[in-house]
Amino acid sequence: MRVAILTTDNREFQRSYEETEPRFGPAVEALLEGLFALSALEVHVIACTQRPMHAPEKLADNTWFHLLHVPKIGWLRTGYQGCVRALRRKLRKLNPQIVHGQGTERECALAAAFSGFPNVVTVHGNMGAVARAVGAHLGSYHWCAARIERLALRRTNGVFCNSEYTEMLVRRFNRRTWLVPNAIRLPFFARPLPGPHTAGNPVLVNIGVVAPYKRQSEVLALARELHQAGHRFELQFVGPADSRSAYARSFLEQIRTAEKNGYAHYLGMLKVDALIERLDQASALIHVPTEEAFGLVVAEALARNLKLFGAQVGGIPDIAEGVEGAELFPLGDEVRMRHSIERWLDSGCARPTEAALTMRSRYDTEIIAARHFEIYESLIRSRDGAIVQG
User: Fold this and answer.
1) Please, what is the angle between helix 365-383 and helix 26-35, to 10°?
2) What does the DSSP 8-state code read for residue 213?
3) What is the pLDDT of residue 384?
4) Partner of 183 at 20 to 30 A CA spacing, among 73, 228, 268, 295?
5) Is the dihedral of CA 141, 146, 149, 151 positive or negative?
6) Residue 387 has what pLDDT?
7) pLDDT value of residue 200
8) What pLDDT shows up at residue 357?
9) What is the pLDDT of residues 161-191, one digit of tens each?
């Protein structure tokens, strides 16, 4: 079976053109790790770039990589028409049985829907919901992404939804959906789990791009209250902060004061090994966004047996259901969350012991890749006149 995966090379997204190896988002990276093990698949990963970069011919024995140069005029300002056309030309040469667009944030879903081949789309972030959460203004990136997402969802042959919440939103535009959660990257399961923590103040982490709908400033305010009440801990923030954003600038100003007082620190972006190391030194994750399609950082933290204090938002309840140590609170109910954190701090900051096993049973790369293969097969059979199983 020949499958084309349309995705974003994060070297392009982050303008790090000097890097020699492609980088993908965590969900795509984990999926590819699972697909690499399926010898029945011939996988072609295709991405676009505004500047020529080094591109390896293959990512694995069954997986090829194609990087297409598309001038700047062919990107968002023209509705990604240059990317769509370049991808169509490449796909005609490859002649895949299925085209799979990864994400509605940029060109991938749109290019899959207009590829001219049987196609599916995975929604990683609900751009319409994100646009509402950030109050996107006319012509802004999020405003455009929401409209491109709507067009792609209406035209594609089916949509992979990473949570019940995403599926509920998608069904307004496409009735053919499959509930397929994101996978967790292999390193989160490969490294031995840490033992009990015995010394020092407990560490809590918050992970995500610094943005209003991720609510880092609100989490920092909660930490300030706990610190002023006499609790001893360290809150570490991980994720990119764009200094062009007024929210990010305000957060970075506030974190400097918190760092002087010793109860919070900003660590910036971390690669996967460094992130796992930080999680293993921590005891809990705080994650309270206003919008969350799935919540992969939640699943990854639970895969390292962290305690969870989270918002009952989006796909987070899917992940937390029945998981040891997972506590969710209605969005905005900081009082209940604060009291729960205080009880946990006062009682010794216990970490769960079984959360990692639960995450592996649900989100292992082999499990998620196998589900993709089943859906691909069902779509191919349906085109041959057989009954669709998906």
Assistant:
1) 70
2) G
3) 57
4) 268
5) negative
6) 37
7) 81
8) 97
9) 999 999 999 999 999 999 999 999 999 999 9
Phi first, then psi, for residue 179 (nearest 5°) are -85, 105
Give the CB-side neighbour count of residue 17, counting CA atoms within 13 A. Answer: 9
Q: State the pLDDT at residue 198.
A: 64
- Which are the contacts of 15, defined by CB distance < 8 A and separation ≥ 6? none
Report the pLDDT value the prediction gives residue 352, as an integer from 0 to 100.
Answer: 96
How do strand 63-69 and strand 58-60 relate by DSSP bridges?
Answer: antiparallel
Tell me the CA distances in angstroms from 301 to 111, 195, 365, one per residue in order.
Answer: 33, 15, 16
The strands making up 284-287's β-sheet, listed across from edge to edge, are: 264-268, 234-238, 203-207, 284-287, 307-311, 326-329
What amino acid occupies position 256?
R
∠ CA 27-29-32 to the nearest 5 degrees? Answer: 110
Task: Enter the tokens of residue 113.
Answer: 């829907």
Q: What angle do CA 122, 140, 71 make, to 5 degrees?
A: 70
Residue type, 210: V
DSSP annotation of 29 reads H
User: What is the Cα–Cα distance from 162 to 233, expressed in whole angstroms?
Assistant: 34
Query: What is the C-alpha separation between 228 and 230, in angstroms, rounded?
Result: 5
The residue ranges of the chain whose pLDDT is under 50 are 385-390
With contact defined as beta carbons under 8 Å apart, do 38 and 132 qualify?
no
| Cα gap 258→256, rounded to integer Å | 5
- State pLDDT tens for residues 95-136: 999 999 999 999 999 999 999 999 999 999 999 999 999 999
Give 166-194 as a DSSP string: HHHHHTTT-S-EEE-PPPPPTHHHHSPPP
CA Rg, the chain, in Å? 21
SS3 (DSSP) at 132: helix
Residue 266, C-beta contacts closer than 8 angstroms, at least 6 positions apart: 236, 237, 241, 251, 252, 255, 259
